[in-house]
Amino acid sequence: MSNSQKSSGAPPALLFVAGLVLMVGGTYASLNLKIEAIEKLNEQGLPLDLGKTVAVIGVFLILFPAIKSFFLNPLTEAIETRNHQLEDTFSEAENLRAEMHKLRTDYEARLAETEAEARFQIQNQIKEAQNLRQQLMTEAAERADALVRQAQMEIEQEKTQAIATIRTHVVDLTLAAAEKVIGENMDTDKNRRLIAEFMDTVEVAS
Amino acid sequence: MANSGVARRYAQALFSTALSHDVVKSVEDDLNSIVGLLENDPEFREFVIAPYTGRDAKIAILEKLFSDRVTALTMQALRVMLEKRREDEIIGIRNEYVTLRREHEGAVFATITSAYEIDGKQSKELLAKLEKTIGKKIEAEFKLDTTLIGGIRVAYGNYVLDGSVRGTLSSLRDKLRHDLLKQQ
């Protein structure tokens, strides 16, 4: 755009010369030339000096290249530089945004993958824990059943043993009482009869 | 130290000699006398058994003691035992001799234990019955044991014929315990 303006405009030297001419000519005309139409406008309250106007245009033509050279061009260059910087910044920002988007996509993908892996592992751990729990419960139940069975068996054995002990004691007490009674009632005659009975019944195993 | 094999050999030799001379009973009585003295007189026993007493001294003393009280065969056997240093086998030789004599006579030794003393008549009847039942001559030793309560118990060889109240009660106890065990 700036190149087209430079190519379309007149060279500065030409403008300077043209401006000088217009300024000198306009000043001369304002001082020396009297134009009837303009005089009439002055009389009517519209002070118009055409020579000054031309001189001012000449001044503008002289000042324009200077303004352009010392103000517009640096400004344009600064704007363009700024635009370039902005474009670079935007481009960099866009690149960064794209990279960020890519990183975000990758991150999200990794996150999703990690989450899926974590879910999978959690599910596996949960299943394993459930299996372990079930196994432990089964073992505990079996152990408890075995303990109960053993306890019942021991109780039954002790009960049987206690009954047998009581019966044995009853037998011993009964026989001890019988022994005492027999002993108190035994005498020589009864002993003689017992020996006689022994002689009648004695046998030897062949 | 007593050795039953040695005692058996000495007893066999002595018994066969006594049998050939028909002095079995006399020799047995002699041996019983000597053993009774050994068992009841500690000083005599110490003199006979003591290893520090010379064998000639022992033979001389024992000949003085027994030469006119025992048969010549018994004295000769005693002399041989002392010469062979078999003093501690005398009791074993007597026991083996008695066993050989019983085997020869077909007799058995029985211990008859009773709670009360058995009179002579009943003891004879008892021995006759036992000899008839066992089929052998009985040499009995009678003992008293009040724990039997009543009745008698006859032990011979490896057998026991128990007719005592104690034995009957023990059998009853065993039977009742056996029945109780079967009920469980």
Morphology of chain A = rod-shaped
Largest sheet of chain A: none
> What does the overall shape of chain B look like?
elongated
Structural class of chain A: mainly alpha
Based on the coordinates given, report the CATH architecture of the largest domain in chain B.
Orthogonal Bundle
**For this structure, what is the CATH homologous superfamily of the largest domain in chain B?**
N-terminal domain of the delta subunit of the F1F0-ATP synthase
Largest sheet of chain B: 4 strands, mixed
Mean pLDDT of chain B, as a whole number? 88
**Terminal residue distance of chain B:** 53 Å
Helix content of chain A: over 70%
Number of separate helices of chain A: 5
Structural category of chain B: alpha+beta
Order of strands, widest sheet of chain B:
2-1-3-4
Low-confidence stretches of chain A: 1-7
N→C terminal distance of chain A? 150 Å
Residue-averaged pLDDT of chain A = 86
As a whole number of angstroms, the C-alpha radius of gyration of chain A is: 68 Å
Percent of residues of chain B in beta strands?
A: 5-15%
Low-confidence stretches of chain B: none
What is the oligomeric state here?
Answer: heterodimer
Describe the structure.
The complex is a heterodimer of chains A (206) and B (184). Chain A starts with a helix and ends in a 5-residue tail after the last helix. Chain A is built from five helices and no strands. Residues 1-7 of chain A have low confidence and may be disordered. Chain A is mostly helical and 206 residues long. A four-stranded mixed β-sheet of chain B has the order 2-1-3-4. In chain B, strand 3 and strand 4 (159-162) form a beta hairpin.
